[in-house]
Amino acid sequence: MQTQYLSAGERRQRTVEAVVTLAGTQNPSEITTAAIAKHMSVTQGALFRHFPSKDAIWEMVMEWVAEGLLNRIDRAAASEASPLEALRAVFEGHVSFVIEHPGVPRMMFGELQRAEATPAKKVAHGLMRRYAERVTRRLEEAKKIGEVAAETDCRAAAILFIGMIQGLVMQSMLSGHIEAARTNAAGVFKVFRRGVATHGGVLAAEGGRSAVRRTTRRTAKGSEKG
Amino acid sequence: MQTQYLSAGERRQRTVEAVVTLAGTQNPSEITTAAIAKHMSVTQGALFRHFPSKDAIWEMVMEWVAEGLLNRIDRAAASEASPLEALRAVFEGHVSFVIEHPGVPRMMFGELQRAEATPAKKVAHGLMRRYAERVTRRLEEAKKIGEVAAETDCRAAAILFIGMIQGLVMQSMLSGHIEAARTNAAGVFKVFRRGVATHGGVLAAEGGRSAVRRTTRRTAKGSEKG
DNA sequence: AAAAAGATAGTAATCGATTACTATCTTTTG
DNA sequence: CAAAAGATAGTAATCGATTACTATCTTTTT
After folding, report:
1. Do both B34 and B62 map to the same domain?
2. Distance, CA of B71 to CA of A90 (rounded, Å)
3. Residues A110 and A177 occupy one common structural domain
4. pLDDT for B207-222, tens place per residue?
5. Which nucleotide is nearest to A49 (CA to C1')?
6. Position A226 in a domain
């Protein structure tokens, strides 16, 4: 069989893509180098021409995840005016990213609970730290302009924000199809927003600026069931 | 070396305990039958006298987890008067359970993302379903008596509740010591409660009955910064 | 003595990694 | 420009280590 010869960099890129794809349907810890190679139509030994070890493959994969996800949420946040709306955009962007790449949460869950401090775990840990920082900062901005209640513990709220995504994604994976995450996303975020937003105003109670932008179909009653 | 001879049932019980202990410091997917046996001071082959397969071991372990956790949260909830306080007790009970058995969340995360529908995964899935049901029911009770806002989507709130625990636990594990979960638990739950509780009353804003019980050290300003 | 529990010593399969070798592409040279 | 020379990419086979699992023998319990 004739194989295409790719440059080292291109081959590494394809390797990362193969792992991300495989993680969408397999337990990441059970992805073998043979399976990766097969998915790339290459022999198993060829992988070690471009990576010194399997750990190095995982490290590059997690770097791809970190760059891709942070990039996605930064762009999502930039398109919104208010901090709280930015957070909603981050949330939706994150959910979209995960739906596009269903293997990502599996890899994150799998990597983060690893006991040894592998390079890949360090990258994943760094991603979570930077993510939490971004969310905390947005919340504090929101607090400053009175969009978020003064008594809010922003660090705790950031933990809740990240957990919200984790829980939404995991329970969607359990239900069989990850796309269910998008269906439930709006309702879950609404509870979160109510937990941090300033009380009193109609805007605050109904969802900030987005209510103005998005709720032409909804009445002031705000009824929603199932 | 003299070995103690135990009954089959006792040996199975010890096996479960060994796995739970090992999962506290190891990646569950990397726990071998040899490691389990070594921790029990027994040879590896002896395990297969009491379990037909490794999968069967994991199934019994997850059943132990399900029974233990549901038991814990049911007892915690029973000791509280109002539904929302019951939920807080459930939350604290869950966190305590996880701190006592740090291997539990690792096993849950590891089992739930498995692609194949192993017996252990089915048990884990069933646990999450029953857990979500309990939380949803409490929320609906709370809504009925006006403790939770009428516009709350209880199913979405239950997803957030479970995600809150997942996120809290995972981020605590990342920080190195799971005990950090207890430190952050109160703050995180406060945001959640604010997201579902009825607005307006001082009690609601400050945390219901628990505020009366627990905040003698806090002033009305409620300032707290990590 | 019979039955159960555990020890000992294996098996077949699979894993990541390495090796010697071949195919292809790129650069240099006449 | 074309052929030689070198560098890079990939193959096929194999290695040692580890895995879940099993067959056989010994010890303890009842």
Report:
1. no
2. 37
3. yes
4. 444 433 333 333 333 3
5. D9
6. no
Whether residues B159 and A167 touch (CB distance < 8 A) is answered with yes
Q: Is the CB of B55 under 7 A from strand D?
A: yes
Radius of gyration of chain A, Cα coordinates, nearest whole angstrom: 20
pLDDT of the residue at A64 = 97
The sign of the torsion formed by the CA atoms of B183, B190, A174, A185 equals negative
Q: Which of A172, A194, A215, A225 to mutate to test the interface with B (most CBs of B within 10 A)?
A: A194
pLDDT at position A105 over 70: yes
- Mean pLDDT over residues A42-66, rounded? 94
> What was the pLDDT predicted at A215?
34
Where does the pLDDT of residue B115 fall: very low under 50, low under 70, confident under 90, or very high at 90 and above?
Answer: confident
Query: Which one-letter amino acid corresponds to residue A174?
Result: L
Indicate which of B112, B160, B178, B218 best probes the interface with A, i.e. most A CBs within 10 Å of its own CB.
B160
Tens-digit pLDDT profile for residues A109-156: 998 888 888 999 999 999 999 999 999 999 999 999 999 999 999 999
Residue B198 has what DSSP assignment? Answer: P
Averaged pLDDT of chain A: 87
State residue B2's pLDDT score.
52
Closest CA to B62 of B16, B96, B117: B16
- What whole-number distance in Å separates Cα of residue B122 and Cα of residue B59? 9
The answer to whether residue A224 is domain-embedded is no
Give helix A119-144 / helix A83-100 axis angle, nearest 10°. 150
- Paired with A148 in beta bridges are A197
Give the separation between CA B48 and CA A6, rounded to whole angstroms.
Answer: 49
Q: How many domains does chain A have?
A: 2
* Closest in A29, A112, A152 to B29, CB measured: A29
Q: What six digits make up the tokens of A152?
A: 């809010």
User: B145 lies in which domain range?
Assistant: 53-211
The answer to the question of residue A222 being in a domain is no
A37 contacts A43 by C-beta, under 8 angstroms: yes
